Amino acid sequence: MSASPAAEPLIAVRGLAKSFNGKQVLRGVDLEVMTGETLVVLGGSGEGKTVLLRHMNGLLRPDRGSVWFSGQKLNDLDENALGEVRKQVAMVFQLGALFDSLSVFDNVSYPLREHTKLSEAQIRDRVRELMRAVDLGDGRVESLYPAELSGGMRKRVALARALALRPRAVLYDEPTTGLDPLVTDRIVGMIRSLQKQFGYTSVVVTHDLKSGFAVGDRFALLDQGRIRFAGSADEVRASSDELIREFLRTAL
Amino acid sequence: MPASINGMFEEVGEVAFLARDVSRNLVRRPFEARLLVEQLDSIGVRSLNVVNLTAVFSGMVLALQMGQFLGKFGAKIYVSRIMGLSLLREMGPVLTALMIGARVGAGITAELGSMTVTEQIDAMRALASNPIKKLVVPRVLACTLMMPVLTVIADAVGLFGGLIIAVAELGLTARYFYTSLLQNMVLSDLLSGLGKAVFFGYVISIIACHKGLTATGGADGVGRATTSAVVAAAISVLVSDFFLTKLFLST
């Protein structure tokens, strides 16, 4: 599924520029994400990867340029109309961003209660199914609160919550940062297998090329506010670009 | 213009924008009754103890001071009417607002602030849920509705404190205290106090929500936001009290 991207990009970013407090973070990013593919956006810390990602579901608004989802220009939409887009473009936050005041079960069922008319029994089934998808299906964590979970578990619960509405695209913000190597491998495997299972489009921003290689179909390198390079894994390996070589060295 | 003054105007503008968003979401369906009831409880009912304690001691102090002072002119009998006037018009709403600003304002800012810095507010938006409607509207509504209720209770408890002192220390009878009080109070005394209370409740909660939603920089940032929310709420209450008093006295 991931190997046959359609011609039409699901998400398109054109000439995107954004600055914060006078500091120019993005200076004209052009990027397309094809339906069904997993695009990995690489870049050093503070290069604006997260800023770029947050434009793709309208959490941030461009200073210049435009962002498109499925042929719809996000710039023009108000917060309510963006809600309809966000039901289709889920986001997994760096530290999970689970709601502290809600149990794991209530976190995962939150989008279902908000946006569907499912009965309690159906919600329970759906949550169980989602928890199984992220290997937490034994029912032991559902009554726990986020503060009682490990970092890796929090990310898995966040992933389950993001998938609750069966999104067409999932945006991952640094999915492996702050995790030990074993948990990293597990999360990476999970991102890959869930993507295969459900066939959604993914955008993963990371500074970790090794994990990036394990999940991505295509790669883009963000440098000084622009996309410096975009291509397949083989093209990355074959590239003579200095910065790419540097990233490759760290990944080996 | 100095940067700090500029920043202050900017912030007032941001609060105004938040107030506009709150009004828009107030009328938008569905109405979140359950969230409102939760906030009415946590903002209103749970503030009763601190408000009552403040009110009873303020009433007692007021009666002591007035009794002492008026006694010099043989005018102790006026204690209850002076107390009624100052409690209903000023001390009831202002002291209640300061206590609510400290207790509820700080609580709202700390809660929303920690949600902001841990990206929970963004997560709500990313889940196509509206944090203004889910978090801000119930808090603003509950605080605005509960302030006059708490103020009436504070007025009553404060007068009760005054009554105790009037009877125990000043040698007035309870009957005289309240007949004199009722004879001299008019409805507008109570209403002007309640009008202030509604306004204070709204201002305190909208400032606290704004400070929480704009907190940055981890636990440290939440601490700073909370402090500045309490200070801003107290200053807004005291400054606006002057203008509201002027307004109510002239009408």
Reported for the largest beta sheet of chain A, the result is: 6 strands, mixed
Number of helices of chain A: 9
Using a beta-carbon cutoff below 8 angstroms, give the protein chain pair with the largest interface and the number of residues from each chain.
A-B, 24 and 14 residues
Q: How many angstroms separate the termini of chain B?
A: 36 Å
Assembly state (oligomeric): heterodimer
The H-and-E topology of chain B, N to C, reads as HHHHHHHHH
The CATH topology of the domain at 9-101 and 173-251 in chain A is what? Answer: Rossmann fold
Tally of separate helices of chain B: 9
Run of helices and strands of chain A:
EEEHEEHEHHHEHEHEEHH
The top level CATH class name of the domain at 9-101 and 173-251 in chain A: Alpha Beta
List the helices and strands and how they pair.
The complex is a heterodimer of chains A (252) and B (251).
Chain A: E1 9-20, E2 23-34, E3 38-42, H1 49-55, E4 64-69, E5 72-73, H2 79-86, E6 89-92, H3 104-115, H4 120-133, H5 151-163, E7 169-173, H6 181-198, E8 201-206, H7 209-215, E9 218-223, E10 226-232, H8 233-238, H9 242-251
Chain B: H1 3-26, H2 33-44, H3 48-71, H4 79-117, H5 120-126, H6 131-168, H7 174-184, H8 187-213, H9 218-250
Can you describe what's shown?
- The complex is a heterodimer of chains A (252) and B (251).
- Chain A has a domain at 9-101 and 173-251: P-loop containing nucleotide triphosphate hydrolases (Rossmann fold, 3-Layer(aba) Sandwich), CATH 3.40.50.
- Chain A is built from 9 helices and 10 strands.
- Chain A has helices at 49-55, 79-86, 104-115, 120-133, 151-163, 181-198, 209-215, 233-238, 242-251; strands at 9-20, 23-34, 38-42, 64-69, 72-73, 89-92, 169-173, 201-206, 218-223, 226-232.
- In chain A, α3 packs across α4 and α4 (120-133) crosses α5.
- The longest helix of chain A has 18 residues, at 181-198.
- Chain B has 251 residues and is mostly helical.
- Chain B has one domain (33-250).
- Chain B has helices spanning 3-26, 33-44, 48-71, 79-117, 120-126, 131-168, 174-184, 187-213, 218-250.
- In chain B, α3 runs parallel beside α6 (131-168) and α4 packs parallel to α8 (187-213).
- Chain B is elongated.
- The model of chain B has no long low-confidence stretch (mean pLDDT 92).
- At the A-B interface, α2 and α3 of A face α5 of B.
